[in-house]
Write a structure and sequence with these properties.
With 177 residues, this protein is mainly α. It contains eight helices and two strands.
Length: 177
């Protein structure tokens, strides 16, 4: 048994097995990779949890792999379908599938705080972009080009100063170093 650094780890292994048996495949896979203890405890080699996860997603109307899946190993399954499974799992992990009405698709039956915060942040970002366009009357790429030109000028000036270059006007009117 590992060092008791978490309340979850203080539970007996029998309860760990019971909890793991109720986890959907992506959560079991994530738990498996949290520690050596759970890596040895969680068995994701069976194809049934993978299939039941896909069927569950299909019944809830969520994105499912459209190409064939390889169930042999976790790595093969996650990269099967041209990486389609991996992309679905990443979207799920970031709660990008959760509805705008606040219903969480990861923690079924709960309100999704992640989706709410993300929507609020995106609304704030779009508000800032609109205000910047109103104030400056410029597109962001124009501001970027202007900033780049400024950085180049400052860098050139600093470069000249760092080499202690002194420009002198020769008698011919040509600038020399």
């Amino acid at each position: 048994m590992p060092a008791l650094s978490s309340p979850l780890l203080s539970l007996p292994p029998e309860l760990h097995h019971l909890i793991i048996s109720h986890l959907p495949y992506p959560d079991a896979l994530a738990l498996k990779h949290t520690s050596l203890y759970f890596y040895s405890l969680v068995d994701t080699r069976d194809y049934r949890p993978k299939v039941s996860w896909i069927v569950d997603r299909q019944t809830r109307g969520l994105a499912c792999p459209k190409k064939s899946c390889i169930f042999k190993t976790d790595a093969a399954f996650c990269s099967s379908g041209a990486g389609e499974v991996r992309r679905i799992m990443e979207r799920r992990r970031r709660h990008e599938e959760c509805g705008k009405d606040g219903v969480c698709e990861v923690l079924v039956g709960r309100r999704c705080e992640v989706a709410r915060r993300t929507a609020k942040r995106k609304a704030n970002e779009s508000w800032l972009l609109e205000r910047a366009r109103e104030i400056w009357g410029l597109e962001w790429w124009t501001v970027g080009v202007m900033l780049l030109a400024l950085v180049i000028c400052v860098d050139y000036t600093l470069l000249l100063r760092s080499f202690d270059v002194v420009w002198e006007r020769s008698g011919t009117g040509i600038l020399t170093l």
